[in-house]
Structures are given as C-alpha cells and as structure tokens.
Amino acid sequence: MFDKILIANRGEIAIRIMRACRELDVKSVAVYSDADKTSLYTNYADERYPLGNPSPLQSYLNIDKIINAAVESGAEAIHPGYGFLAENPKLGEECEKNGITLVGPTGDVIRQMGDKITSKQIMRKAGIPVIEGTQEGLTDINEAKEIAKNIGYPVIIKASAGGGGIGMRAVYSEDELQRAIESTQSVAAANFGDSTVFIEKYLEKPRHIEFQVLGDNYGNVIHAADRECSIQRRHQKLLEEAPSPIMTEELRAQMGESAVKAASSINYTGAGTIEFMYDNGNYYFLEMNTRIQVEHPITEIVTNIDLVKEQIKIAAGEELNLEQKDIKVTGHAIECRINAEDPLSDFAPNPGKITGYRSPGGPGVRLDSGVYMNYTIPTFYDSMISKLVTNGSTRQDAIDRMKRALSEYIILGVKTTIPFHKAIIRNPYFLKGELNTHFIDDHKKGIEEEMKKVIEEDRENVNRLKATFMPGKKIAAISAGVGSYLTNAQALQNKKRN
User: Fold this and answer.
1) Is beta strand 341-342 parallel, antiparallel or unpaired with respect to 101-102?
2) Would you say the pTM of this structure is higher than 0.90?
C-alpha cells in the first residue's frame, strides 16, 4: 500500500478520497488554488501545497504544477477524482515519467474511451450494442444528409472528444442539419480542441442506465450493479438512484455481462462506468467514464463496497478480493446533487457566501459535502455544494427519507437546487418511476409550480431557525436552500412582521 497520495482535486470529492486514505492509513496531500485557501478539504488533508492563480488552467488543470507538488511532497500516487484531469491521458503519461502511480486506468485506455467515435468502434468489435450512427467524423454535408436520411430523423450531432452534453444538437429535419453540424463543430473546437463530430440516431425518450465496473491488473473484471441517471438538465445529471426502478435480475445480468465484456475488451483497471441508453426494451452503449463517478455513493450503499478504497488498492497492485457472485444489491439509494444554482432561472450558477448552514442527519442519510458556515463558494469552479444521499429497504423508503433529509437541509445566502429536488421527489411520475432523459423538460411547468410552493413552505422553517444562525438579527426573504426568492414586497412584509 502507498504511504502518501496526492489528491488532484478539490471540494467534496477531495474529502471523500482523503477519508478513504485515512481508513487505509495513507497520508493525503491536498493541492489548492488561491480561491481555495480556506476550503474545508485543505484543512482535512495531512499536507497542503499551493497552486496559485485560481483559474482552472493555472491550477487544477496544470499538470506540471500537480506533478511538481507530488514530487515535492513525496507522494507515490495521484488520485484525480472526477472532472479536471480525471480523464486526461497526459496526466498518466507524466506520472509514469516521474515514477508516480495514477489511481486510474492507463493513458491509452483513457484516450480510447475519451474519443466517442473510437470507443464505439471498439464496442462494436466487442459485440456490445451500439446506437446506429457514423463510425468516422463528418467531413461532407452531402454525405451527412444521406447518412441522416438512411438512419431516419431525428438524429443527434455530437462532438467526438466531448463530454457532459457540451455541444450536442438534436436535429429533426434536413433543413436543420448543416447549421447543427457547424454549431457543434464550433463548440467542440472551443471546448475540446477537436472539431470532429459524428451523427447517430436520436432516441427521444430513453432512460440513462449505467453500470459500475472494477478491474484489476490481473485480468479480473466485475460489475457492481446499476444506477439510473435519467433526471438531467442539458445532459448533466441532477438526481440518481440505485438500482434503476425498471431493473430486473434478468436485465441486470444481461446488461452487467455487456458492461464486463466492454471493460474486459480494453483491459480496464480501476473503477469505471459503462453508460447505456435504454429504450423500448433495448439498451445501447453510450460511453465509458474512466474515473470514479459523482454518483458512486449510491452504489456503495446498495452493494456495501467502498469504491474509492477499491480504486486505491487496485492502483497499489492488489488483486480484487471480490467475484461477481459476491455482488448483492440490497435496498435502494437516491442521490441529490445540491448545486449553487437557481433552478427557477434555468439553473444559472449562484456562487456566494453561505450565511447560514444546517446539515441533515439521522438514519439512512449520508452527506458528502465540502462547505461550512460562512464559506464563500468561488466563481471559478463547478457549482456543486454537496451530495445528499438517502437509502432504505425499498425505493419508497429511500424517497421518504430524502423528503425528510431535504426538509432538514438549510443553506442560506445562496440559491441552491434544494427546492428543485423537493419538487422532483413529489412528482407523481417520479414516484411511479416513469423516467427518461427529458423528464425535466416534459414536466417543467409542474416542477416549477411545485418549487414555488416549496419556497413558500420553507420560509416558515427558516424563520424558526434564524436564532440559530443569526441570534438577535432579523432575517427577511430567506428560503431554505435558495436564498432570496421572494419578491421585494414579500421581503418588506416579512421585515414588518419581524
């Protein structure tokens, strides 16, 4: 086992990895930008090294600075977490040059799976179902028109080097095709330095179901069951659950076998995720994430596996001590991503100072967080505040606990997605498990109306707690998790009451 690991990340995921290190008796090293000097994770680590300028390119995406910090600290390994450098093959190459172990797969595997065209070609050869589409980048508009016509509209244009839904465009007719291709190429070049795009059949109401996989350096690969990630905005996940509400033992065995075959075909090592689109009884390979996922806690809960510790042990050269027959799914878990965003304004980021904070707790509640009272959420990075996870013996039990946990969770000073999550878990279609990747758009009006009700209900809850956060001071127009959503007139009325 390693003596020391550098965590090339920040926030809640940095703390999550450091917790695993402590349980393994491994020292942790934090790196931080100027914007993160007072962050919780920097104080949790055993050692800290500054990166300077808060710009991601000058800090958490600067491979030279990360490697220098690892060398200076004497860290034997680097754990990239998710985001930033987690799927950058160059980090692995630089680690190898400097005699440092990357907690993750090889750079070659990361590169192959990071290219959407290449990854689909590999999966086709491995016999994994893949959505119908081009196997090479689009270069000629007339050829693209012919391909789209043969596939049948609607189709979707995607960036080959892309991720996170950036630049994706659905196309419903030939008149829209050229404009969509040019737009996606432009976005792809700006965001990924590669303008290559491809076309595939657009599934209008699919479910997003993914499988967690683990592979060691000795050819052993298993899956740790499924997660449903269909609640998304702009192709980015907001709420996940494990297992999927539609999953049966037969379907899990079939999709799980495909996931293991996919990972085995590239000699995958570490923790990764095979993502599928499920539509009308059929499933198709979407992509592979060659890292730990944001939503990994729900899998940990229903399988009783510490995925981050498994990652570290595999990187240290240990053989998997789990076989497929050991994987059992028990109960149900739900994760809500709590972001500093305004869900009533198209999820616009809302960084700022947290002026009041109370975390939820009790049976069946897990909170992975990187914030605290009076902490200022920086403007430079992802808007995630925390991940709230609940579990129960059934899906309904997990939902009931999530309702309770969300009602306890108080964040003042910034607007967050807490009201959105409260609205989602009250939604009758969500309660029935009738999900697809367009769920938010399909139920937008009902979700927004429910959010407004939630905000009104929360006002009384916060007023009862104001003495805890700001004794002797007046709080007006503050709503749990959202900050100040009330109108000026309402705020004035509240002031008069107080």
Assistant:
1) unpaired
2) no
